[in-house]
Amino acid sequence: MPAFNQSRQNVIKLIFLVAFIILAIRLLFLQLASTQYDLLALDNAVSKKIVYPDRGIIFDRKGRSILENTQTYDLMVNPTQLKGLDTMGICTILKIDMETFRERIIGAIIKNGRYRPSIFESSLSVEAFVQLQENIFRFEPGFFLQERPIRSYPFKAAAHILGYVGEVDSSILKKTNYYYQMGDYMGLSGLERFYEPILMGQRGVRYQIKDNKNRIVGSYEKGLYDSIAIAGRNLRTSIDIDVQVLAERMLKNKLGAIVAIDPRSGGIIAMASGPTYDPNLLTGNQRKNNFSWMLRDTARPLFNRAIKGQYPPGSTVKPTGALIALDEGVITPSFGLGCSGAYHGCRRPIGCTHKTAGHAGNLRVALANSCNSYFSHLYRLAVDNPRLGGTVNGYLKWKQYMNSFGLGVRLGVDLPSEDKGLIVDTSFYNRLYNRSWSSCTNVFLGIGQGEMQATPLQMANMMCIIANKGFYYTPHFVQSIDGQLESDTILNRYKQKHKVTNISNETFEVVQLGMQDVVEQGTGGVARIEGIAVAAKTGTAENYGMIYGKREKLKDHSWFVCFAPRENPTIAVAVIVENAGFGATWAGPMAALVMEKYLRDTLSAARWKEVERIESTEIILPIVKSKRNRLDSLRKEKMRKLQLKATAKHPMDNSPGKKTTAAHYHLSAIKPDNEEQFI
Amino acid sequence: MKNNSFEISKGIDWALVGIYLVLVVTGIASIFATTYRDENIISGFLSFKTDYSRQLLYFIISAVLAVFILLTDSKFFTATSNIFYAVGLILLILVFPFHTDVKGTKSIIRFSGFQLQPAELCKVFVNIALAKYLSSLDLNFKKLRSQLIASSLVLVPAVLTILQSETGLALVYFSFFLVMYREGLPSAILVIGFSVAVLVVMTLLIEQNLLAILLSLAALVFIYTAKRQIKRDRSILVLVITIWVVSVGIQRFAVPYFFNNVLKPYQVQRIYATVGKDFQVDTESMSEEDIKKMEDKKKAGNYNVKQSKIAIGSGGFWGKGLMKGTQTRYDFVPEQRTDFIFCTVGEGFGFAGSIVLLGLYLFMLLRIIKMAERQRSTFSRAYAYGVASVFFFHVFINIGMTIGIIPVIGITLPFMSYGGTSLITFSVLLFILIRLDADHQMVIR
Predict the structure, then answer these.
(1) pTM for this one?
(2) Nearest to B66 by CA among B103, B104, B16, B127
(3) Where is pLDDT greater, at A428 or B207?
(4) Which of A677, B97, B375, B395 could form a disulfide with B381 if both were Cys (CB 3.0 to 4.6 A apart)?
(5) For residue B181, is pLDDT > 50?
(6) What domains can you pick out in chain A, each with its CATH number?
(7) For residue B246, what are the domain limits?
(8) ipTM of the complex
(9) Which of B142, B314, B394 to substitute to test the interface with A, most A CBs within 10 Å?
């Protein structure tokens, strides 16, 4: 009976129908109700490739490029395509052994996966690059060369100013709201950092389709969403690279700083910090290594003393004291003080180097002789000014003056992490002396000691104020940006004139003449330049340091501040050499050479001799030096071991000409010249 | 000749042939879409080296076979059914000594460049043999003995297939129970089978003890509400208690035993992955190599489903267009030419295309049932139901697996998946049906 169970066909049909409805509902949810799969699919298959623009170039005031881009080459490896390749050949060229080779391949696979090319060796040495380029056909497709622009510093100078670039880390990623991506480079210090948005240009984005093994297989939607990379814009600075190089030369083997500013514009001509380093050390493949050694150096070569070194200004602050007293009207230029070798106005006498009568007969003479009594008294007059009503108000007014002169506040130079020095608030004294303090308590401020610290940049700026007779422009490096736009407001604040005193030009003349006398008759004779009137002030700052946990008085810092020509100043300079004694001994000659080089553009042979004399002198505290030497020998020992290891692994390779092993290269990279200097 | 060709086309169900052609062409197009790599299209199709051209070749072979089948007398199939069944079994057994290891399966024989998977092919023979048995004149299918014989006809090749590590293909044989159901197998068996399936799924979803308590509560509630009936007829109580004991037995002991001792760990993990759970395998007794293998399989299974869901899910309503699917174009979905071919449609043509495809398959199934019911001979009807059941099982499980509602078991999508054995098997299954249907007025025994 064929039709016996015919009704059962409906049950079967129902089963089919229900099953298909289940599938359809599931598809409905999968394809229509959820959006996550679109994103996942895009994430799977489309890679966003960043196209890096060239970073902008930085020029000095004469149009010479002092920071530019050069090509280096990375050797890339395709881990899957190594079979049958002459790996020994690669090892020979790169001077590595098979073990290292294997390690690097494994490292590459771990980092980037098997199918994506990874860096095998970055920033190839010239020698290796030349050999590889000739022979690369032998190693393809397992290896290939890829160019990579890096920053280069043709003058090997201005490391602290220009700064360096480096890979972004996760904290930067977060801070910039993920504008950068892992592996991006950005300016990390100096102008590179400060002008990062301008120098970096605009990144291009290329969307590419990748397959399941992350290999690129073509462009996405024919490049519809791609954008082109726009090169970074160039910066024109006020730096004179010759002066900069000279300044750095003279600071060699010394701790200190030199800052030179054009007072007419605030443009910084030179800013050197000693010890410095060759900025090219932080670009190549030895960057990490070099960086870590420099970080451990007790002389702190990475530290920009010009904006971060905070020193008691000593006598160099005396002209400033005069300005305050004059502006407040508590003295006139003819004000005189009888000093017999000490100031007795307060309980403890303050010593003065001069005893002769009349050495503080008026402002000009007092300045020229740097009379401690006179300027201690000026300070007290200013603070105890009866018009202001009380010491506290007087001090506040004095502090306000100092701040407006740029002392105790950040000037706002176009470098990151500038320090502000120290001018304390009244609360400091209130706390320390339980509110009972007078102008005698801090009378040392009048001679630049005590609770007062200034950076070399601030002191150079102070010179600008005096040179300009009462105003200054915020010191800065960058004068203009190539292709400047309306929206580039970053330079606007450097066009603003800061008028800080209301002293008449004639009165200012007195201060300037006093400073000129310093050079022509007083303590600053070393700064005399034939045919140019120089105004200057020396300083010898007492200072203390912690040595093995004990506060000890260290050798005085040598200060020298000046500007020239006196009548129509075009350069103001501040020099400090740490623990170098009298201001006139070391700081003075350096300042003079900087000014002469800038004003005359050349130096005579005799003057070059002087440069050499300064350059070859080492002024470093024994404690710093001994620690530094220990570190240095440590490094040498490590190099030696590395070298031994390298030669042991290449017993064949002992021809002297070819012995540029990694260790050798490394050593020469750290100390380009004179590597024996600390032994 | 003229007369002959007239005879071939007589009585052929052209609608079914039409759907068949549409599905095969869609399949070739999908394979083309996923594997085409900028080569010259014409030479690509003629070389028979690319996957799509090979599929085209398999289609041509299928078409030739179809013509032969249509030329064959319907009685040929009943007459030779026993021989075919024997040949099928022999092939299945021959696999054990002569198989080649391909991707972990032991079910493939390779000869002169071609691969044959008897487990796939055997469905045709089993279907014919089952139909033959069910249409025997002296058969009384109400007898348990007949039911057991029919079941063993189906289950013997299934067991052989399981022994070849092809659990998926073995499961297909269970679809023949639908045929037996149509031919008089008691409904209770279907209901019991379904209930057990539900219980097993519940075991996966609900914590063991909680499920036991729920089952007990359900039994108590039933006994309480049916107090009066139970007073009248004690056997109801016995029945309820029996069901309760069996259910709890299954969920507490049978399922865990089955999972731990019968299935391979990776299979259990795939099953658990489908319901979104992780199965902790007892790795103590396993060798390190086995653990690694298991982990790999687990990862591969999860990865397949994840990528497949991404591909289909990103298709949206209208899809990205043929050849524009980023996921299927660039090999993100493993096995996408074969088991995961549905992704190509899902991504390329979206929800609309998927529904159209589902509709085509459903239409095909209902059409086959309609054909089955118009047969005068039991053989043809049983055979037709067999075809419908096998197709249904393949389509439902395959698509269900690509969209993540069924564990990954490697079975193909009829007419679309890449693979010679699969395409030829389904074509032969279908064209024998069309041949039989052409004679649906005739009683074939």
Answers:
(1) 0.61
(2) B16
(3) A428
(4) B375
(5) yes
(6) 49-237 (3.90.1310.10), 243-292+299-476+496-615 (3.40.710.10), 622-670 (no CATH)
(7) 192-262
(8) 0.90
(9) B314
